Known about the structure:
The complex is a heterodimer of chains A (about 300) and B (about 400).
Chain A: E1 2-9, H1 14-27, E2 31-37, E3 46-54, E4 69-72, E5 92-96, E6 111-115, H2 117-124, H3 131-142, H4 147-162, H5 164-180, E7 182-185, E8 211-212, E9 214-216, E10 219-221, E11 237-241, H6 251-255, E12 261-264, E13 269-272, H7 282-286, E14 292-296
Parallel strand pairs in A: 1-4, 4-5, 5-6
Antiparallel strand pairs in A: 1-3, 2-3, 6-7, 9-10, 11-14, 12-13
Helix pairs in contact in A: 1-3, 1-4, 2-3, 2-5, 3-5, 4-5
Chain B: E1 3-8, H1 9-19, E2 24-27, H2 34-45, E3 52-55, H3 59-71, E4 77-80, H4 82-87, H5 89-95, E5 103-108, H6 122-125, E6 133-136, H7 140-155, E7 163-168, E8 176-181, H8 184-190, E9 206-207, H9 214-246, E10 254-257, E11 264-268, H10 272-285, E12 290-295, E13 297-299, H11 303-310, E14 315-320, H12 330-338, E15 346-350, H13 360-374, E16 382-384
Amino acid sequence: MFEVRFHGRGGQGAVMAAQTLAEAAVIEGNYAIAFPFFGAERRGAPVLAFTRIDNKKIYSKTQVYAPDCVVVLDDSLLDTIDVVAGLKPEGTVVINSKDKPEDIDLGKELRTGVINATSVALEILKAPITNTTILGAFAKATGIVRIESLEEAIRRRFGEKLGAQVGERNALAARTAYEKTIIGKSKAIKKLEPKKQWLPTYQELPVGGALVEGKTDAGLIGPGSFIENKVMGWATFRPLRDKEKCTMCLLCWFYCPEGTIVRISDRGDLMTNYDYCKGCGVCANECPVDAIKMVRARA
Amino acid sequence: MSVKKVITGDHAVATGAKLCRVEVVPAYPITPQTLIIEHIADFVNDGELDAKFLTMESEHSVMSAAAAASAAGARVFTATSSQGLAFMHEMLYATAPLRLPVVMANASRTLGGPPGIWCEYNDSMGARDSGWLQLYVEDNQEALDMVIQCFRIAEDKRVRLPVMPCLDGFVLTHTVEPVEVPGQEEVDSFLPAYAPDITLDPARPSMIGTFMPAEYIMELRRQTATAMESAKKVIMEINDEFARKFGRNYGGLIDTYQMEDAQIALITMGTVTSTSREAVDELRKEGKKVGLVKLRFFRPFPSEDLRKILSGMDAVGVFDRSISYQGGGQAYNEVRSALFGMTIPIINHLAGLGGRDVTMEQIMKMFEITQRAANGEKVNPVNWHNTRGETV
Lengths: 299, 392
């Protein structure tokens, strides 16, 4: 059995990647299952997806805890999540990154395949959806499925939903990534400490789970605690406002779903708090005078 | 001082709620509960009760408003029945684990289809796993007294769960009998004001009922289950305190009648208990050692009490006014679980479904069949009483 864990962000297509990989394995005559694990799913939030591949029916319905391969669709996740947790020592990591394998610090020396999937996806698909691209890198780095089977699986799943042309373009993205993937070894410098989490016993949990503002070893809890939950890493793009064009109509301030646009009343100006901006682009979309442009948050 | 009044079960329940000084009453009418909320509306209108009376657009909204008002720190009462209870089913599950001590009377009524308005327990039985405490009363006095006890139980820090007292539709709701109405000052000294630690208060922000991932929900379920278990002791304590103060002792989780030397026991719920008391008297006159166990609380289920009182019986009959479409009624199945490992024959007696009258004759038949099982005769484990088809 070969087990894969995908780390992505909502909207990048990690779930679709896991399913497409399963389909490719089935095309080759194997058995495969794929399934997601979400938190409160939102665009940009970290998500997990899993694929299991075997040459016989798979009965296990648990999450994957000791994967043979970890696929990371967004290298900003490396800062907050120990993506290689549980990875078998001889396992492989596939990462979407502009860096070379030897420049990527996973806290362990691991066989690592790297592709700048965001660039490939933006170029071929005109969108930062990296799922098909990263699958090409997966095929190259692991050899578990042939690139031809993946192309076929992509044509089927994406073609059926979004039309043959989209299917073809995604297959091309996978093939391009397959050819550009660099394989090497990651570096082992950082010490990964598991993120602390507030885990009360049933007696410690306040009655009915009702919470007032509070502080624990693992950080704030209750109302206002999300101030610690900075989401700048979720953003592929961020808004830049042209002050000359801006008429201060405040539509962006009104529409921002996260309230990250702040009015500075004494100067009659606006400020974006990028710590909490997920780069959704609603502000740019709503701006009636095109004063807001979305620019790449990172390369 | 208490006053004797001749009132319906619905009037008794409404009077109990008034004496508890309930602060918010979201309401939606449904037969045979309607009189309860009409009486409360009158109390509020006449200035006898200082409460916010909210006429809602549905029962789902009633329970939503009840949960929210309770979370805001108010003492909340409402009442429903049958389809109304079914309609608020989703919100029942929101109220209990959030530990909101709402008290809601349920006028037991058959849950359609087919539609009917008379007494059956299939409405409240559908809510038995929602985390609400559930009890079934026998007469109008108990209906009034239990509303008062229910608020004490619900608001007790060891419990903090919603409670659903159920009274038989029409058999109690629309029947008048003498009821001793306690004085306000007596009730005030028995039931202090509700004072929760955390409420929805703008001055002290809190989160109640927000999204909770799997890392916490197991602990929350365990906490709720522990509270339900703790309720057994609290119910007994409050029963005893009430008995000392008001002179009426209901026994706690169960009540018993003529069980001291009984060899055959019948377990009943609601008003059938009342008629069964007379049946026991009749059979005792004939020298038969029969007794009665009144299942007062269905949640928490009094497994320990039943094992104790039923130990050594020759046979036990269990009356059910609803069926789970799987081997008899709900009480029967719970009793069988409670008595697991004991070798007593347990016989189910289904009667009164859809509001069909449960007569003295039928209750005698229940004792007779149970006696036959005690004698070692082969009898049906589940018996449909007064139901056309093969006779039992």
